[in-house]
Amino acid sequence: MLTHTPNRKTTSQAVTDYPLGYTDAEHQRLIRQAALIAPITERFFREAGIGPGQHVLDLGSGMGDVAMLVARLVGSSGEVVGIERDPNSIARAQARVAAAGFRNANFLNTDVNNIATNRPFDAAVGRFILMFLPDPVFVLRSAVRLVRPGGVVAFQEPSWAPMLALGARLPLWSRTRHLIHETLLRSGANREMGLALYSAFQEAGLPPPKMHLEMPLGSDADFIRLTSDLLCSLRPLAEQHKVSLRELGDLDTLSDRICSEVAAANSVVSLIVVVGAWSRKSATADSSRGEPAESSESVG
């Protein structure tokens, strides 16, 4: 039986501390962001082996974008079960799934720190969820336990270091990204969870994962507005952690001013650096622990 590390935050604290909140504006931002990075996630899942007929667990489903992408990949003979703790998010995800015509996507209203199911899955996936958890390895172990031997575990998480370096030549853009980064830092989020996936997978009992990094770039107003909208979602948390946004001026005009700066430099900016990591659970793994069972047989 898995037990939570005593010196970590409790599950209830993790829920309270979720930085971006569940406002309608944040829901819309998530949907627009998901549409932009969907091709990156689809390529990643295909590479990991997510395909027709599989039963897949999606951790931290949010608005259901990853679940719908997986539902399309696994087809009518497969299924995706999404885990989401916020009931309003589930309601919106279910409505979007129904509107899109998917009948193979369902959601469980439970917390990823305490997954309320014991059914086996062919794969467990997630996107931008582990960075907000007090104990991501614990959650990974819980997910690995539910994956069949030989099944896939595939997660995408961010890395902020390349984004901060790339924006250094654009003062307003750079300061905006640094203030977002500082707010996330003070809230306890792991801004480099993407690179940390390599060790986290192994600590969870998986072989070293295959990894790669992609960074969407753009200069149009809609692309840039995703960052100013992210800052607006984080504004209450910035105030809570005493991160002053005053130097950015009027936040209602921030996106337009960044657009002007980018246009004047004839340049592009990054939205998010997406680091993907996937690995297969050992074919001889003990499902109760996610670790290789003792065996005299070799695994090819």
Report on this structure:
- By secondary structure, the protein is an alpha/beta fold.
- The protein has one domain: Rossmann fold (3-Layer(aba) Sandwich).
- It is built from 10 helices and 11 strands.
- The protein has helices at 11-16, 24-48, 65-74, 87-100, 136-146, 161-166, 171-187, 193-203, 221-240, 254-264; strands at 55-59, 79-84, 105-109, 121-127, 147-158, 210-214, 217-218, 269-270, 274-280, 285-286, 291-292.
- The strands form 3 sheets. A 7-stranded mixed beta sheet has the order 3-2-1-4-5-9-6, sandwiched between helices.
- Helix 4 links the parallel strand 2 and strand 3.
- Helix 2 crosses helix 9 (221-240), helix 7 (171-187) packs across helix 9 and helix 9 packs across helix 10 (254-264).
- It is globular and about 55 Å long.
Kindly summarize this structure in a few lines.
44% of the residues lie in helices and 18% in strands.
> What's the structural domain tally?
1
Main β sheet profile: 7 strands, mixed
Number of helical segments? Answer: 10
Radius of gyration computed on alpha carbons: 20 Å
Tell me the fraction of residues in β-strands, as a range: 15-25%
* Count of strand segments: 11
Key features of this structure:
alpha/beta, 7-stranded mixed β-sheet, 18% strand, disordered N terminus, globular, 300 residues, 44% helix, single chain, Rossmann fold, two-stranded antiparallel sheet
Topology (SSEs and partners):
Layout: H1 11-16, H2 24-48, E1 55-59, H3 65-74, E2 79-84, H4 87-100, E3 105-109, E4 121-127, H5 136-146, E5 147-158, H6 161-166, H7 171-187, H8 193-203, E6 210-214, E7 217-218, H9 221-240, H10 254-264, E8 269-270, E9 274-280, E10 285-286, E11 291-292
Parallel strand pairs: 1-2, 1-4, 2-3, 4-5
Antiparallel strand pairs: 5-9, 6-9, 7-8, 10-11
Helix pairs in contact: 2-3, 2-9, 7-9, 9-10
